Amino acid sequence: MYRLITDDSTAYKGSKSAKIIQSIASANASNVKAFYNNVPIEKNKTYTIAFWAKVDAKEDKKRDLDLTIQTINPVPELIFLKTITLDSVDWKEYAYTIPTKDIEGNVWIGLLVGLSNVDFWFDNFRFFEGEPSDEIKSVETFVTPINKMTVSWGHIKSLHLNARKARKTLEFSKDNDYHKCHSWFCASYYNFCWDHRSLRVEIGIREYMHRSPMMVLGVTHHIWSVDEHGYISDYSRPLGKIA
After folding, report:
1. Hey, is 72 helix, strand or coil?
2. Is 132 exposed, middle or buried (0-12, 13-18, 19+ CB in 10 A)?
3. How is the chain split among helix, strand and coil, in percent rounded to 5?
4. Domains located in the chain, CATH noted
5. Distance of CA 152 to the CA centre of its chain
6. More confident of the two residues 27 and 117
7. What one-character DSSP code corresponds to residue 185?
8. How many CB atoms are located within 10 Å of the residue 168 CB?
9. pTM to 2 decimal places
């Protein structure tokens, strides 16, 4: 008897993992399997199977299983078969590279687990073209409340300055080029011409030096007027040191 369950008490990635619970070992490994079906492959290419797994420490510290790839059509054929020993009670990654040679079509990729009754978890199962080092991994971005507030405020300010971004009005842009130009104009106006209260520096009693973001960065030494901004602005070249 065996069960494949979703376990939300442990996971390598995310909040859930898959757990195989098996009370009695089978005489054949293929009698109990977990697999992905209808996975397309191309001939003369290299693929990698990778996943994370761990053994239930309450039962044992290791267990064996078979990792296999078999074609579905036109004729069933064994492409890959390897016996793996899961040897960790903590999450551990297992990765294997398989050349397809002249084989192409749809395959199924499976874990044959019938020969052992030791329970285990697996998570983040991947199948991709290339070597393990070729995997494109997602970049995790950690957003703090301050960063989120800054981005949100910048978006709100952009909507306030640029009427072309207003929704459900007749002011929205009908042409993408004009939209880009106006967006850059508003962004440069905000950074060169806007007197930011949060950037001012106190130089005396109730006396301040007012600054724009570009003054803080050292790009310019004064707050631009609208006429000056319109005269100097050139969005076709990189911005350099401007007096």
Report:
1. coil
2. middle
3. 25, 35, 45
4. 2-134 (2.60.120.260), 145-232 (no CATH)
5. 21
6. 117
7. H
8. 6
9. 0.55
CA distance 177 to 195: 28
Measured CA to CA, the distance from residue 49 to residue 107 in angstroms comes to 13
Residue type, 19: K
Closest CA to 208 of 218, 198, 216: 198
Q: Which helix (H) or strand (E) holds 93?
A: strand 92-99
Q: What is the pLDDT of residues 110-151, one digit of tens each?
A: 899 888 889 999 999 998 889 888 887 655 555 555 555 455
Q: Which of 66, 77, 67, 132 is nearest to 103 (CA)?
A: 77
Q: What percent of the chain has pLDDT over 70?
A: 84
Its sign, for the CA torsion 87, 89, 13, 70, is positive
**pLDDT tops 60 at residue 205:** yes
169-206 residues labelled b (16+ CB within 10 A) or e (exposed)? eeeebeeeeeeeebbebbbbbbbbbbeeeeeeeeeeee
Dist CA 12 CA 16 (whole Å): 8
Instruction: Let me know: does 47 contact 98? Beta carbons within 8 Å.
Output: yes
Task: Classify residue 34 as exposed, middle or buried by CB count within 10 Å of its CB (0-12, 13-18, 19+).
Answer: middle
| Token output for 174 | 């009908």
d(CA 105, CA 73): 7
